[in-house]
Amino acid sequence: MRRSWPLILLLALLLPALAVAQAVRDPSPMQFTDQAEADRFHDLAGELRCVKCQNQSLADSNAAIAQDLRHEVLTLMRQGKSNAEVKDYLVARYGEFVLYRPRMDTKTWLLWFGPALVLLAGAVVVVNVVRRHSRMAAAGPPDSIKATAAVDEDQEW
Amino acid sequence: MTPIEKSTFSRWVPLLAAAAIGALLLAGVILSRSQDREALPSPLIGKSAPTFDLPVLHDASYRISSRELLGEPYLMNVWGSWCPECRVEHPVLTRFAETKRVRVVGYNLKDEREDALRWLEQFGNLYFVVLADYSGETALDWGIYGAPETFLVDAKGVVRWKHVGTVTQQILDDEVIPLLDRMDAES
């Protein structure tokens, strides 16, 4: 327990560094009218990226701009905007980047289908290798099977 | 294809695949080193600047609307007394404003009025006019997410350029001035 004091002291000293380059405003907490609104808000804010600290969602970030955008999102929700309309609003201002789940278009299709394509390529390779081996095993005379096996041992990759 | 040809080709496949993955990783490393990798491209470029109507910092009884700035291009610089980088670019922008190449409009974001006025008194006021956005509401329309940020708006009110972060002399020479020349040629 005593050993953790230097660490706590260090963290306390580093705290002011976190405050750089952010406008200081009172962080007024979000007020929700009911649970349904709160749930919908948290779902939506979790899908939106903070533009300042880009590895956090709008829901997690403490940046001043995230605070403002959270209030803006709630205001838009109360104006009767759908989730898609709220997202459109933010995309029009900050670009596609604000969406954690990027939309599918010519720029993002590789992102969406890339992993599947790699998996497919791997499957094609595996099928080819298996087919070739079984063809060799079926066609070749018995002593050539031994030779194939020896080659296989050399090529472990 | 004879069996021999096929086997020489397939021997190269793993090497090619490894090279491709290596190139991808290298590109990632190089990209992550660039200084403005966190700067977002503005979707506003090439579109009409968002309309606004904001009080003037030095006399809050005056307001300036986006319509009043039409007719000539302007460089809009977002700053705040709370922003350390704004101090860094301040002398660069001051020297540029003195050339009177373009109007430089200040956009004071989420500041206290006294702090902002003191800041200008201390470092010098380079701006043609300073707009004050205390709530940061208009800033949302511009896609502003911090300071410093700088926009170039043409005579027709179309956003032509945006820079996130400190403006340096090199950025002015390489990007802003050539673009201003092109805009002059267009009109």
From TrEMBL, chain A:
Domain of life of the organism encoding this protein: Bacteria
Signal sequence region: 1-21
Keyword presence, Aminoacyl-tRNA synthetase: no
Annotated Pfam families: CcmH
Domain CcmH/CycL/Ccl2/NrfF N-terminal: 14-140
Keywords: Cytochrome c-type biogenesis, Heme, Iron, Membrane, Metal-binding, Signal, Transmembrane, Transmembrane helix
Annotated transmembrane regions: 109-130
Record family assignment: Belongs to the CcmH/CycL/Ccl2/NrfF family.
Functional summary from the UniProt entry: Possible subunit of a heme lyase.
Alphabetized PANTHER family for the sequence: CYTOCHROME C-TYPE BIOGENESIS PROTEIN CCMH (PTHR47870:SF1)
Name the record gives this protein: Cytochrome c-type biogenesis protein
Automatic annotation (TrEMBL), chain B:
SUPFAM superfamilies named among the record's database cross-references: Thioredoxin-like
Subcellular location field: Cell inner membrane
Assigned keywords, A-Z: Cytochrome c-type biogenesis, Disulfide bond, Membrane, Redox-active center, Transmembrane, Transmembrane helix
Matching Gene3D superfamilies: Glutaredoxin (3.40.30.10)
Residue span(s) of domain Thioredoxin: 43-185
Primary localisation category: membrane
Domain of life: Bacteria
Family: Belongs to the thioredoxin family. DsbE subfamily.
Record-given protein name: DsbE family thiol:disulfide interchange protein
